[in-house]
Amino acid sequence: MAPKALVVGATGIQGSAIAAQLVERGWTVYGLSRNPQVQTGVRPVAADLTNPDTLRDALDGIAPTHLFLSSWLRMETEAENIRVNGGMVRNVLDALRPAGSVQHVALVTGLKHYLGPFEAYGKGSLPQTPFREEQGRLDVANFYYAQEDEVFAAAERDGFGWSVHRPHTVIGKAIGNAMNMGTTLAVYATICRETGRPFRFPGSATQWEGLTDMTDARQLAAQAIWAAETPAARNQDFNIVNGDIFRWKWMWHRIAEAFGLEAEDFDGIVRPLEEQMKEDAAIWTDIANRHGLAEADLSRLASPWHTDADLGRPIEVVTDMSKSRQMGFSSYQATDQAFFDLFEQLRTDRIIP
């Protein structure tokens, strides 16, 4: 049977990269989202993951061989995150069950598997870095675990294989995405350049001085597809980062250079982006109008709260990639180049000037 993929969350940072690489490899690709966008080579499917009845109707007749899950909804509490996001995974798997076509399910979660959910983020007893898959779960409720459990239960019942992919902060393009550090920093740098404001690191001393890593969306996509096509990767969980490590005291200056800015060295004062950018909506609208940009709504481009959560962490976050490396996954991406590639794409698409 020729491979046929259903990418859930196809317009997001992760899903769009997965869909694009599948198309490049000649797969038949369906992209499910609440509001589909035009994506080259992707057949759009409009559906609400929280509504089982309409979801079944939307997926009727598609019969994918491979399912890539990279979608979630942020709720007010972790209990609600678990109920809603676990339910969305269950709804998709239930809707596809009658066709009996699914051979592999790839679920994208993240490093909150090791760091804890938003309500307990970076608190309590955490595993040592670098994080390794063998360290397992924390003793705390987490919607990532609920999503995994839905996949595991369905795989046991229906006989398909699975893989779980845990990226660090993802660099990639998506408009209206809730967790988008790359575009957030691009917008912040643009505002600093246009207004003459200083380009100030918003995070903690630990992140400025300590080692960290990130994940290019293209790197994540490559691993998810590799796992789907590699028998040894069946029923395995994998960390996925770029393969390099850096300190933000170096990266901050690299990003500043990409916008023709002089970066200030960190002075020990935490200045969250959410505070720095709270009055910037009108400024961005003016910038967008003057430069003829495609999106004038700052809230659809920047997610300061999420960037603050990552850059404000009081702990080092470094990820081990040995498991997939030993199985043959050898892809690598320099993180500064990942940022530069994103900035170039944003300029080409008239998202930033």
Short description:
The protein is built from 14 helices and eleven strands. It is of the alpha/beta class and 353 residues long.
> The CATH topology of the largest domain, please?
Rossmann fold
Tell me, briefly, the overall form: globular
* Helix run count: 14
Average per-residue pLDDT, rounded, comes to 95
CATH class of the largest domain: Alpha Beta
Low-confidence stretches: none
State the end-to-end distance.
Answer: 46 Å
Under the CATH scheme, which architecture of the largest domain would be assigned? 3-Layer(aba) Sandwich
Class by helix and strand content? alpha/beta
Question: What do you see in this structure?
Answer:
By secondary structure, the chain is α/β, with parallel strands linked by helices. It contains 14 helices and eleven strands. The chain has helices spanning 13-24, 52-59, 78-96, 112-115, 143-158, 181-195, 205-209, 217-229, 248-258, 273-276, 281-291, 304-311, 322-327, 335-348; strands at residues 4-8, 28-33, 42-46, 66-69, 104-108, 161-167, 170-171, 211-212, 215-216, 236-240, 246-247. The chain has a seven-stranded parallel sheet, sandwiched between helices. Strands 7-9 form a two-stranded parallel ribbon. The chain is globular, with a radius of gyration of 20 Å.
